[in-house]
Write a structure and sequence with these properties.
Keywords: Nucleus. By secondary structure, the chain is mainly alpha-helical. Among the domains are: 100 residues; 61 residues. It has seven helices and no strands.
């Protein structure tokens, strides 16, 4: 491919054309000078022709310098515009990546919601009025449904402000009530555990005291055996002696 086929910009095509003209003028000048006779002096007409060819070449070179300067400035401006466009493209690409990330996140949330184990019966009835689950319990298997919550009627009787609450608010209030009750029971359990530890320590102390008392009694019995033996020796004599009335 020729340079003219590769370069499509009009200003660059002018620069190529001026370069070709300058090249042709330079070749013509060289051919004209080389064809001159090798004599010590040249004719006045020959010098005039050389001067004309030189001026023509200088004119082409001046035009080529101007076009080159314009092309250089145009290339600099094009680079600046390209850099700005690249920054804009990078910004848009980053926004696109963020949108892709958000899309994947939302798709994951949608899939999680679609695979949710609990499907309220009211939702099923709204989707299909002829559904056989009308009036049935929600199709759930969540752990919070297995909590030993107090019945709804008893809860509303204790807290009448939730009489007009929806199912979500009512269930949340019942769970919070159960949590508060369990916290209270846990506090009582800890207090009773402390009391149990105190009673256990007191019982252990009393057991130790009783064990020491048993040892003291054994020592006392061992110490009293000689006295019993002595009284045993004088027993018949004491029975024989009668105290006068």
């Amino acid at each position: 491919m020729t340079p003219k086929e590769i370069v499509t910009d009009p200003s660059l095509q002018l620069a190529l054309s001026a370069s070709a003209d300058a090249q042709a003028a330079a070749v013509t000048l060289l051919d004209f000078v080389s064809s001159a006779p090798s004599t010590s002096s040249t004719s006045h007409e020959f010098q005039i022709q050389v001067s004309k060819q030189r001026k023509l070449l200088l004119a082409y070179l001046a035009q080529l310098r101007g076009l080159h300067r314009d092309a250089h400035l145009s290339a600099r401006e094009t680079k600046a515009v390209t850099a700005e466009a690249r920054q804009e493209v990078d910004k848009l690409h980053l926004q696109l990546q963020n949108l892709y990330y958000e899309q994947r996140h939302l798709q994951g949330e949608i899939e999680a919601c679609e695979s949710y184990e609990c499907v309220p019966s009211s939702y099923l009835c709204a989707q299909d009025p002829l559904s056989s689950v009308s009036g049935a319990k929600d199709l759930c298997s969540h752990k919070y449904l297995a909590l030993p919550l107090i019945p709804v009627e008893e809860f509303i009787a204790q807290f009448p402000q939730y009489a007009d609450a929806d199912e979500v608010a009512l269930m949340t209030a019942r769970i919070e009530h159960e949590y508060a009750e369990r916290q209270e029971l846990e506090s009582q359990r800890k207090a009773m555990l402390v009391k149990k530890q105190m009673l256990t320590a007191a019982n252990t102390k009393r057991k130790d005291q009783l064990a020491n008392l048993d040892k003291d009694l054994e020592k006392f019995i061992d110490a009293a055996k000689p006295i019993q033996n002595t009284f045993g020796q004088f027993g018949p004599f004491l029975h024989a002696v009668q105290v006068p009335l």
